[in-house]
């Protein structure tokens, strides 16, 4: 059965995640009651998204996270919804919350897709501080609360394309990276911005693992004009809820036109510099992972093709295979950044 | 120092080439209960059921939809892993039998080998049906152009050839050729480990684990074969 959502569908018409997820139980209950096909009309009214909530979707009530601290709750009380039809919005079906929070690549917690969600339950994000350093007028160590204070949180619905050929559609909560950069005032020497993930083997078990060949901390970077692009986003939540550890709590990058590994998680350091910074996957295997890592269906990874992707979730009856778009469908917003560059060389 | 080291090595070589293997373990074959054919029939039936468990578990996961966001991929990965595990287990039977002298172990080699084939075929079918949805051109280009898939496919072909010739009638018909064909299992298992190693992105644990086990199993055979040759040479000289 194929359900296509029309672009002008009202959020109140979308079956809530919890109802969708519990469809089997719902059907089971319906059958038990002896209600046959006619009973389908009796799907309960959506529990959220209906009464004046402008957000596209919220985490199902039974999976909602509680605030890491009081100020988080205040911050999340006012989230601006993504503008329908705007640059930061898509009408594609959202990847259900449960899949977004259980199918993760976060090698600090292990390489299995379920490892991050299973091994990060006690990950502590309060207190959290971020160091701003390098070619910048306002360097220093910022407490996350102060770091986020001036920024209005907003919802953005982005496609996420992993270099492993799977993809999701996720409603993030956060603020534009450009707003932060404008605040900390990089100087004229700053041509690149580099990011680092927390190193804490007590909390991130795989950092202590012996068979892992990653040199911690995990590092990523962007050219300054990429970082200043309106699409570049610092996310602190998803589905209207606080960021789960496995998705990069408390704060992570989201660069939707690049492969997922560029969107570094659990950031503790932002460094501005003149030269291109080393990045983790490029350091490990430069023939497979470049600095730019733009989603590009014409440039294949040496071990797998990149012109198709699997949109999650799949079932055994639908493989979810769709064609990969140039710059993950964000060419209008970012193609100008790479004009005149040979993208087969700068992959 | 150097001379002493040399005499030590000589003494060691003398010992490992003259003493019968696993003297202490071999005592197991003297335990009467362990020679009871009924016991072995039961043990083999148990092994059969245990080897089926991963299949039952995955089938249940597929039916109940508890395999995560990408069930096809999960099934492909797990059946592949089990194929390799069972293949290594089947390779462990000969050393175990030789070390313990328990002849009852012998038929397990075929049982486990056929289960390895079973999971390898499932792995191949799941990959092509659920992940590639039988797009033949893609299947073909994968096998020809992706080295890790090429080696996996070659390993599968070897296992199929071995499975087809695993009946008693075939053993008799092929005679000496049978042994030569079935020695390809060493190649198949090495390709299996390579197939796994090649798709990993960073965590080498699995590849190191399976590679080490394979190394030990093949190393054992190398040593026993060398010993046999040396002993034969000595016998001839004497």
Task: Note the topology.
The complex is a heterodimer of chains A (347) and B (238).
Chain A: H1 17-21, H2 23-32, H3 70-77, E1 79-80, H4 97-102, H5 115-119, E2 129-134, E3 140-143, H6 144-148, E4 153-161, E5 166-176, H7 177-184, E6 192-197, E7 219-223, H8 224-228, E8 233-238, E9 241-242, E10 252-254, E11 267-273, H9 280-284, E12 308-311, E13 321-323, H10 331-334
Parallel strand pairs in A: 1-4, 2-11, 5-12
Antiparallel strand pairs in A: 2-3, 4-5, 5-8, 6-7, 6-11, 8-9, 8-10, 12-13
Chain B: H1 2-18, H2 23-26, H3 37-64, H4 71-100, H5 106-131, H6 136-145, H7 147-164, H8 168-174, H9 176-182, H10 185-199, H11 205-237
Helix pairs in contact in B: 3-4, 3-5, 4-5, 4-10, 4-11, 5-7, 6-7, 7-10, 8-9, 10-11
Structure write-up:
The complex is a heterodimer of chains A (about 350) and B (about 240). Chain A is α+β, with helices and mostly antiparallel strands and about 350 residues long. Chain A is built from ten helices and 13 strands. In chain A, β2 and β3 (about 140-145) form a beta hairpin. The longest helix of chain A is centred in the N-terminal third of the chain and has 10 residues, at about 25-30. Chain A starts with 16 loop residues before the first helix and ends in a 13-residue tail after the last helix. Mean pLDDT of chain A is about 90; it is low at about 25-50. Chain B has about 240 residues and is mainly alpha-helical. Chain B is globular. Chain B has helices at about 1-20, 25, 35-65, 70-100, 105-130, 135-145, 145-165, 170-175, 175-180, 185-200, 205-235. Chain B is built from eleven helices and no strands. Helix content of chain B is about 80%, strand content about 0%. At the A-B interface, loops of A face α4 of B.
Summarize the structure.
The complex is a heterodimer of chains A (about 350) and B (about 240). With about 350 residues, chain A is an alpha+beta fold. Chain A contains 10 helices and 13 strands.
